[in-house]
Amino acid sequence: MLNSSSTTVKNLPLKRRLCFLLKLVCFVSSVLIFCEFLIYFVVIFQCRWPDVKGGAHMSEKETSASVLKAIILADTHLLGEIKGHWLDKLRREWQMERSFQTALWLLQPDIVFILGDVFDEGKWSSPQAWADDVRRFQKMFKHSTFTELVVIAGNHDIGFHYEMTAYKVNRFEKVFNFTSGKLITRKGINFVLVNSVAMEGDGCAVCRTSEAKLVALSHKLNCSQQKHSHSKKRCSDVEKLPASEPILLQHYPLYRKSDAECTGEDSAPPEEKNIPFKEKYDVLSQEASQKLLWWFQPRLILSGHTHSACEVLHAGKIPEISVPSFSWRNRNNPSFIMGSITPTDFSLQKCFLPFESRVFTIYCAAGALLVILVLAHVQLLTPPFYFAQHLISKHKAV
C-alpha cells in the first residue's frame, strides 16, 4: 500500500506536465485552425449579393432565373520559379485558395471572372515552369460544374506588348479558352473579353488579329441593338445577338491621368495617387480607349492591373471599375467584386478578404499569451494572484 501511494505521488508532476502540454497543443491548434481556415468563413459570410432593380420584389426562383451572380477578381500573380520563394508561394497561394473556395461554397456564383495577371512569370516562364504554374492554378481555383470560370489575359501572363509573342498568346488561349474579341452571353447578358495588351495600335500581327475580331463583334452587337448608324441592309446577314448593351472585361484600365480621383479604403496609397499614368503601360492609350468606347458603347467596364480600386466615369456616363488585387502579396486588404447582373441593369458590391495585418496581430497576441502561460507554468513568472496575495500579507505583517 505504501509503495502504491509513493508511486502515485511521483506520477502527479508528470501527469500535470502532460496535461499542460495537451492544453498548449489544443491552444496552438485552435489558433492555427482559426487563422488558416475559419477566419475566411467568418469574414466572407458577412458578404451579401447586391439587389438589382426589381430584384427585391422577385421570388427566389425568379431571381435565380433572371439575375446572373458574378464574382470578379484580378491580379492573383501566382509566383513562379525565378522570383518566387517557396515560403512566399505557400503563404500567398494558401490565402487565395482558401478565400476562393470559401467564397464559392458560401456565395455559389454562376460565373467567376479573373481579369488577368493570373501568373507572375508567364511572360518569361519555360514550358515546364508554365505547366507547373497551370497545375497549381487549377488546384487553387478548382470549381464545380455549376460555376463557370472565365480568365482574361494580362501582361504578366503573355508579356508586355514588346514581349508578347504568338507562342505565349496561343499557350494562354489553349489553357483558358480565351481569345480577344470573344463574346460570352449568359442569361441574355453580353460580356466582351478584350486582350488589352494587344491594343497597342502599332499594327503588330497579334494586334491586327485582335482588333479585327473586336470590330467584327462590335458590328454584330450594334446590329442586334438596332443602332441608327447601322442600316437594315448592312445588318441583313448578321447573326442576331441579345440586345443587351455589353460589359467589357479587360486587364488594363481605359486611359486616365492618374488615380488622383479614386477614393475608398482600398484605393491607391496617398503617395501614389498623383503619380501620372504611362499610356500603354499603366493604362491603355487615349486612342485605344476611344476605340473601345466607340465600338461597343458598353454599360460597364471592369479592369485590373493597378492592384488598387478605382471608379471612374467615361464620357460622363460609362462607369469603369478597377478591381484591386486578390493577393496579400500586393495589398493588406484584398477583395473581390460581387455583381448581380441582368440584361438591362447591374448592381455591384465589394467583399473584402481577411486583412493580413489582423491575422498577424492574432498570431502575435497568441504567441505572447503562450509565452506567459509557459513561464507561469515553470514558475519563472509569478502568477498575478499569488503576487497580489504576497503584497497583502507583507503589508499586514508591517
UniProtKB/TrEMBL annotation:
Pfam families: Metallophos. Belongs to the metallophosphoesterase superfamily. MPPE1 family. Residues 69-308 form the Calcineurin-like phosphoesterase domain. The chain crosses the membrane at residues 20-43, 360-387. One of its GO terms (cellular component) is endomembrane system. It is a multi-pass membrane protein. One of its GO terms (biological process) is GPI anchor biosynthetic process. It is found in: Endoplasmic reticulum-Golgi intermediate compartment membrane. GO terms for molecular function: metal ion binding; phosphoric diester hydrolase activity. Metallophosphoesterase that catalyzes the removal of a side-chain ethanolamine-phosphate (EtNP) from the second mannose of the GPI-anchor protein intermediate. Participates in the glycan remodeling steps of GPI-anchor maturation to allow an efficient transport of GPI-anchor proteins from the endoplasmic reticulum to the Golgi. It comes from Thryothorus ludovicianus (Carolina wren). Its main location: endoplasmic reticulum. The gene is Mppe1. Its cofactor is Mn(2+). Keywords: ER-Golgi transport, GPI-anchor biosynthesis, Hydrolase, Manganese, Membrane, Metal-binding, Transmembrane, Transmembrane helix, Transport. This is Metallophosphoesterase 1. It comes from the Eukaryota.
